[in-house]
Amino acid sequence: MLYAILCYDDEAAVSAWSEDEDAAVMQRLGVVQEKLERQKRLGPVARLVPTTAAVTLRKREDPIVLDGPFAETKEQLLGFYVVDCETMNDAIDVAKELAIANPGVGSYEIRSVKFFNGKGAPG
Amino acid sequence: MSDLGWVDTALIAARPQAVAALLRYFRDLDTAEESFQNAALRALRTWPQAGPPRDPAAWLIMVGRNAGIDQVRKTQRLTALDDERAVSDTGDAEAAAAERLDDSQYRDDILRLLFVCCHPELPATQQIALALRIVCGLSVGQIAKAFLVSESAMEQRITRAKARIAKAEVPFEAPGAAERAERAGAVASAIYLMFNEGYSAAAADAERRAPLSLEAIRLARLLLRLFPAEPELMGLAALLLLQHARIAARFDADGNAVLLENQDRSRWNGALIAEGLALIDKSMRHRRPGPYQVQAAIAALHVRSPSAAETDWAEIELLYRALERLQPSPVVTLNRAVAAWKVSGAEAALALIVPLEGPLAGYFYFHGMRGALLAALGRAGEARDAYMRAISLAGSAAEAAHIRSQLDSLSAPAKVG
């Protein structure tokens, strides 16, 4: 069963990381990813640029593009993992490992995947 | 990063908002800063055990406000309270009250704080130093190092800046729309200057000055969160990100500047480029061009080009024309001439820069460019004179060395370009 682990964090806090800190966090998260990769359980992993650089397309007859999402909440979606896990508990364990590698505020939302188009990354 | 690095990060991230709110309460920069320091010390004591509060900024504002009130009382010799009781714990009730504070009030607070530090009455170097100290929370020592001056000189500069701010009238009520835009504009140009202080450093100083560029990027992102639909602020952030993305490729192992066309593009920072390109594309959708957007668009064309040879110089030339209209300056025209050289040849470019001789007589890059154009046209004697003039104006050994290598290649058989 595939699970998506969605990473929510305060992007103001994340962008306050120094370059060294950022690199250290990515390195620790990389260790968790490598382990999952060796177990052939790791799907796509993505880190997103801040929401300040995002736009939102609102669906309607004539769709409009907005400068958003506006950060109304404290935490923003900053990235995601797709991981193959037997059970929800296994997925929670993966998220716990990620949380240990990247401690602090923020949260991981764990959702099982209903449909997955597993093509490789483009380009 | 230690296990408690998250406390430092949370304090840094919450600082602008917390200091800004405390400035509104106390209407005095020093009191606001000291109150924040007190709150931060308390956070360092309590957060590691209690875990992060739901809203670190709100927590720091509450605790800082209590600490500040206590300090004011003490100095007024009204009542002496013991520290731990006066700085009351922020239970959930207080935190909830703080969270109800209007977001728009936060926005005006932070903008006011930035504007106070970047007050137009202050000279640019004082604006930048004050913003780094108060908003970014860098120590005086760190700032002094970045500005390559002694700590006592920097201390003095910051003290003088604060004294001038204290005398300047800073309105504390919510600004009107026009005033808000004016303040944001003043802050944007101070952020741009801060970035350039770091970015234009020579290789030997680059590492020490790098914090200036990084803090400027952080402030540009902060400003953008306050005004998420302002195309010029998107342009500013994009410009800084796209410039900074190239930093690792700007100097060779010997510390010599590497021209854009010779840079190893694999050393450019892909993450910063992704964010910068998204921002410039987003800003252009607004169709309200401004100088930062145009400069960012030029940087984006360089970055998007798969190789130096494939650079779209014609489009870059058009963008510099647009920049000349928006923000006329001889330096912009000089940059346009670089693009014109690629598009229409050295003769046309030389014609463009001849009128700049007066205003740019003391400008290193003007004489370097003029020398290069004359050399390309086979006018070696005049080129040599121009290069010699450039060397006499060089601001660093690396700049002089670069021109000297151009001079050496002049002695080789002239190429007609």
Choose one word for the global shape of chain B: elongated
Give the name of the CATH architecture of the domain at 2-49 and 75-112 in chain A. Answer: 2-Layer Sandwich
Helix-strand pattern of chain A, N to C?
Answer: EHHEEEEHE
| Biggest chain contact | A-B, 29 and 31 residues
Calculate Rg of chain A over CA atoms: 16 Å
Strand content of chain A: 25-35%
Compute the number of helices of chain B.
Answer: 20
- Largest β sheet strand count, sense and barrel closure of chain A: 4 strands, antiparallel
Strand order of the largest sheet of chain A: 2-5-1-6
Strand element count of chain B: 0
Features:
heterodimer, A: 123 residues, alpha+beta, Alpha-Beta Plaits, 4-stranded antiparallel beta sheet, 28% strand, B: 417 residues, mainly alpha, 71% helix
In short:
The complex is a heterodimer of chains A (123) and B (417). With 123 residues, chain A is an alpha+beta fold.
Give a description of the structure.
The complex is a heterodimer of chains A (123) and B (417). Chain A is of the alpha+beta class and 123 residues long. Chain A has a domain at 2-49 and 75-112: 2-Layer Sandwich (Alpha-Beta Plaits), CATH 3.30.70.1060. Helices cover 31% and strands 28% of the residues of chain A. Chain A is built from 3 helices and 6 strands. Chain A has helices at 11-14, 19-38, 88-101, and strands at 2-9, 42-47, 56-58, 64-66, 76-84, 107-112. Chain A has a 4-stranded antiparallel sheet. In chain A, helix 2 (19-38) packs antiparallel against helix 3 (88-101). Chain B has a domain at 5-101. Chain B is an all-alpha fold. In chain B, helix 1 crosses helix 3 (56-75), helix 3 packs across helix 5 and helix 19 (380-393) runs antiparallel to helix 20 (397-411). The model of chain B is unreliable at 79-96 (pLDDT under 50). Helix content of chain B is 71%, strand content 0%. Chain B is elongated and about 75 Å long. Chains A and B meet through helix 2 of A and helix 1, helix 11 and helix 13 of B.
